[in-house]
């Protein structure tokens, strides 16, 4: 469950090739971070995996099946955005339950799943509030709760903490790492922040202009950066 393989995936917008042919394996249960400077193609790559963009060529396999023609809602993935995308007029409970309502899950089951997610995320006391009555960190937890109730094959995070202040970012980093340890679900996490990458990842994918500059564990990248770009970006001594 949850293995994702990119095979010679490319993406062009018009005549501009943003992702040249790219191969990458993401193992079941791995916490993979895509890191690189702004504009290097991190979000595009994540959106291709999610199905929010179509590949120009190549194949994306999820659990050994070609997912390229599978619509986003059927890929079994849950995306968490930096903008939260919560419904302001709905309670926290209804926001978290929303994907379950769409899937016609009955109310008792919805409540059970929402309450289990709220328990993990320390939101139990906030279920009847509206998003406007929450802090930034709590709103981000609601967005994560909405992903958890779908029980996805993998979570996809696109710079989920960039709207939060520095202290809260450190907290949320730990919370997301703990969530990964308890759920053991594959997570793909996009950030331009080297510290986030180094502290959270099992495997880091460093991107430079749509190409993979290096793939490795934080320690491997730190100890043996393969090129000057990785050395400079990760801040390791080369
Ligand atoms: P990152 O998330 O790493 O900042 P993106 O994946 O958003 O980078 O963008 C990679 C490149 O693709 C950028 O040059 C960006 O301008 C371009 N790009 C992204 N989305 C589109 C689009 N819908 N149409 C045209 N160009 C795009
Ligand atoms: Mg981006």
From TrEMBL:
MF-aspect GO terms: ATP binding
Subcellular location: Cell inner membrane
Membrane topology reported for the UniProt record: Peripheral membrane protein
Keyword Zinc-finger: no
Keywords associated with the record: ATP-binding, Nucleotide-binding, Transport
Family listed: Belongs to the ABC transporter superfamily.
Name under which the protein is recorded: ABC transporter ATP-binding protein
Organism (species): Hoeflea poritis
Lineage, top ranks: Bacteria, Pseudomonadati, Pseudomonadota, Alphaproteobacteria, Hyphomicrobiales
Span within the parent record: 1 to 238 of 333
